């Protein structure tokens, strides 16, 4: 599939020169920094030298005083506290953090994770009733609750208070909880708005520790915060960048038993970064809630001994193997359905349904179909006598808006521009398929149907020096809104050592015309370029620069994102 390369705007020369002189780096690196909003010595110092001292005062957040006071009151009165969280990575890490911190000095806490299939996302009536049956008089809701006004009111009638810690966008009506911690509330003055759910749990415990204990105790849980930030795809900017930076150090140097066990079972030997969490730890933690119950993930994350953690990691990893098989089988079926139907192949959208598909993985399957066909995709299955599904979009297309256009055919839906969930009556399936295709066809552009690679700048190979690499490494942790820089180079040819592996990928030494530098390059899913590379055709490519460690030796490697021939 052809991809569009979009070169970012290069900053003004005088701006580049000014920053280069201020922090003693070359113009290429200065340009990248300015593109990311780092334009002077002070902002560069803040960016390159993250410090826990730069974290915002948690009491700047609306509701924090009330939250801390109510928690202290509950502890003083020896009330039973229920730590309630969602079943995904952000929810389970949030619960693990708050529960593990509190149990150090207050044993009267219980955990509740809703069942993905019986209860669905967020605060449930079953959860409130469980709290009542177990004499809990305070519920701390993590990564959920901001849209649970009705259930908060039901809890209040039962004598149960709520403290809500949620990072999702609130409705106009805010639940009548004792305290609502959500920086996205329009009247919340907290300076950073993009915390994860676990990040909010951390800020709550940080505030409590400032008042009544030692704040440094809470820093021991930053490995959980880093896992949540990476897995929930929130921006790696501002406070999130600080939390991720120190969380990764904890994760790599002294992780809690559950995360260490997960690293070991995944066979991870090198240092983990954000991408490593996303592709190894995150899916394993998520798998518990996808194919069984999310409580297994929490049990793993709160494990206090290596023996207990290793046992739980085995269970969670088995769930992940089941998840991967479901994922692979359903993706194959979905692709076969498209390839076997000329109308589906020619469509501008994908809407597929099969009543036996596993609900826990249809979101992943939707994402894989987008990767292959690059168009808005809805994957549907049957659950509780209804059709339910997950939708994923392409860059620039408002998926939520398209689903909203079909709302007359839906019973329930929610989400945002690029991902959504929906429920409909089985009798409306065909009508929804037709209408969604009609809406997408009338609004999507050809540009939106072509994958985009954002390129930071053109780069000559002779600029890739040890100092250049050192500065690039200091720009980590990389992730949303601080992605690893992408470069474009032209006049390239295969120097030698061209090989294909696993029938999908290519590896070779690459050189540039009129340039002495030669680098190892690897291109995943680019085996279709092998023949022309073998012929010696000149090409240009977009790539990132990484360090690759193999058998104890570290070398520079160019990770190819795309190749185009001259």
Secondary structure topology:
Blueprint: E1 4-7, H1 13-23, H2 27-35, H3 41-48, H4 64-76, E2 80-85, H5 89-103, E3 109-112, H6 125-133, E4 136-142, H7 149-157, E5 161-165, E6 179-181, H8 197-212, H9 216-219, H10 222-231, H11 238-253, H12 257-265, H13 274-291, H14 295-301, H15 306-339, H16 342-346, E7 350-353, H17 362-373, E8 377-383, E9 386-392, H18 399-405, E10 412-415, E11 419-424, H19 429-443, E12 452-455, E13 457-458, H20 466-474, E14 487-501, E15 505-512, E16 518-523, H21 530-535, E17 539-550, E18 553-565
Parallel strand pairs: 1-12, 2-3, 2-4, 4-5, 5-6, 7-8, 13-14, 16-18
Antiparallel strand pairs: 8-9, 9-11, 10-11, 14-15, 14-17, 15-16, 17-18
Helix pairs in contact: 1-2, 4-8, 5-8, 5-10, 5-14, 8-10, 10-11, 10-13, 12-15, 13-15, 14-15, 15-17
Please explain how this structure is put together:
The protein folds into three domains: 119 residues, OB fold (Dihydrolipoamide Acetyltransferase, E2P) (Beta Barrel); 258 residues, inorganic pyrophosphatase (n-terminal core); 109 residues, Diaminopimelate Epimerase, Chain A, domain 1 (Roll), CATH 3.10.310. The protein is built from 21 helices and 18 strands. It has a five-stranded parallel sheet with strand order 3-2-4-5-6, with helices on both faces. It has a five-stranded mixed sheet with strand order 7-8-9-11-10, with helices on both faces. The mean pLDDT is 94. Helix 8 packs antiparallel against helix 10, helix 13 packs across helix 15 and helix 15 packs across helix 17. The two termini are 17 Å apart. Helices cover 43% and strands 21% of the residues. With 566 residues, the chain is of the alpha/beta class. It is globular, with a radius of gyration of 25 Å.
């Amino acid at each position: 599939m052809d991809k569009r390369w979009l070169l970012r705007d290069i900053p003004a020369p005088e701006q580049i020169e000014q920053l280069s002189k201020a922090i003693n780096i070359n113009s290429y690196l200065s340009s990248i920094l300015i593109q990311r909003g780092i334009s002077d010595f002070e902002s560069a110092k803040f960016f390159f030298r993250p410090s826990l001292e730069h974290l915002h005062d948690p009491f700047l957040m609306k509701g924090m005083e009330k939250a801390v006071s109510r928690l202290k009151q509950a502890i003083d009165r020896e009330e039973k506290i229920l730590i309630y969280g969602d079943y995904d990575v952000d929810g389970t890490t949030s619960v693990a953090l708050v529960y593990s911190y509190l149990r150090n000095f207050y044993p009267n806490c219980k955990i509740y994770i809703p069942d993905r299939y019986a209860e669905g996302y967020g605060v449930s009536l079953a959860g409130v009733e469980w709290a009542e049956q177990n004499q809990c008089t305070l519920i701390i809701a993590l990564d959920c609750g901001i849209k649970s006004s009705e259930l908060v009111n039901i809890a209040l009638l039962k004598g149960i208070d709520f403290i809500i810690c949620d990072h999702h966008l609130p409705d106009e009506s805010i639940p009548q909880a004792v305290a609502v911690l959500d920086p996205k509330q329009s009247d919340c003055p907290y300076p950073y708005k993009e915390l994860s759910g676990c990040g909010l749990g951390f800020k709550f415990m940080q505030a409590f520790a400032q008042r009544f204990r030692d704040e440094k105790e809470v820093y021991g849980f930053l490995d959980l915060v880093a896992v949540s930030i990476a897995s929930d795809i929130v921006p790696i900017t501002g406070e999130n960048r600080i939390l991720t930076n120190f969380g990764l150090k904890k994760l790599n140097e002294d992780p809690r038993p559950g995360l260490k066990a997960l690293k070991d079972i995944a066979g991870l030997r090198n240092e983990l970064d954000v991408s490593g969490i996303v592709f190894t730890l995150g899916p394993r933690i998520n798998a518990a809630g996808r194919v069984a119950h999310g409580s297994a993930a929490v049990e793993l994350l709160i494990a206090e001994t290596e023996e207990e953690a290793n046992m739980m990691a085995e269970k969670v990893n088995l769930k992940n193997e089941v998840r991967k098989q479901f994922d692979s089988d359903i993706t194959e079926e979905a692709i076969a359905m498209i390839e076997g139907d000329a109308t589906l192949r020619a469509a501008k959208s994908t809407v597929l349904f099969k009543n036996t598909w596993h609900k826990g993985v249809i979101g992943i399957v939707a994402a894989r179909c987008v990767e292959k066909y690059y168009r808005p995709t809805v994957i549907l299955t049957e659950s509780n006598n209804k059709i339910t599904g997950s939708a994923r979009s392409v860059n620039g297309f408002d998926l939520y808006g398209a689903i909203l256009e079909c709302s007359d055919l839906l019973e329930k839906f929610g989400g945002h521009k690029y991902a959504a969930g929906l429920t409909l009556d089985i009798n409306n399936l065909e009508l929804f398929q037709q209408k969604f295709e009609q809406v997408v066809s009338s609004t999507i552009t050809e540009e939106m149907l072509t994958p985009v690679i954002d390129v930071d700048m053109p780069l000559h190979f002779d600029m890739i020096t040890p100092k250049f690499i050192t500065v690039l490494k200091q720009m980590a942790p990389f992730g949303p809104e601080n992605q690893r820089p992408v470069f474009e180079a032209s006049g390239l040819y295969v120097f030698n050592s061209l090989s294909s592996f696993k029938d999908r990928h290519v590896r070779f030494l690459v050189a540039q015309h009129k340039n002495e530098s030669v680098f190892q390059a690897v291109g995943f899913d680019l085996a279709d370029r092998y023949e022309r590379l073998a012929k010696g055709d000149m090409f240009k490519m977009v790539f990132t620069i990484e360090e690759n460690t193999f058998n104890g030796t570290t070398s520079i490697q160019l990770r190819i994102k795309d190749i185009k021939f001259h």
